[in-house]
Amino acid sequence: MEFYELSALKNTVSIEYHSLQNDPDAHATPSAEPPTLRKKTQIQAIVGELVKGEKLDHNMAGRDSMHLRFIDPSGKSMNVYLQEPRDDSSGKIYARMGAYCYRVDQQALQKALNTSGIPWEMMI
Questions:
Q1: With DSSP H G I counted as helix, E B as strand and the rest as coil, what are the percentages for the chain, rounded to 5?
Q2: 58 DSSP 8-state letter
Q3: Angle between helices 40-51 and 106-116 (to 10 degrees)
């Protein structure tokens, strides 16, 4: 199990991504060449919204919708699974990072993803 805080994402140099909406059993690496975001300002906008997240005491029940893999300068990857809450209509989404779970503002994250070219529609 991975153990890292959201602040570990601040050194990200690229983000690989794919939807899990239509394939909840998809492997964390869907292909040899997954779609990848490399533009620093767009990466920082996404990370900025994630680091505002509220750390929860335990993982929450949610449906995996999107996998984001954050790559740091050394090549280390950090997996973040965005999950749609099953029983929460508060406008939040869960970001699960290994053993940790964070509650994140859905609209702000949606805007950052869409602006960066990662279509929120992948999650629908």
A1: 25, 35, 40
A2: S
A3: 170
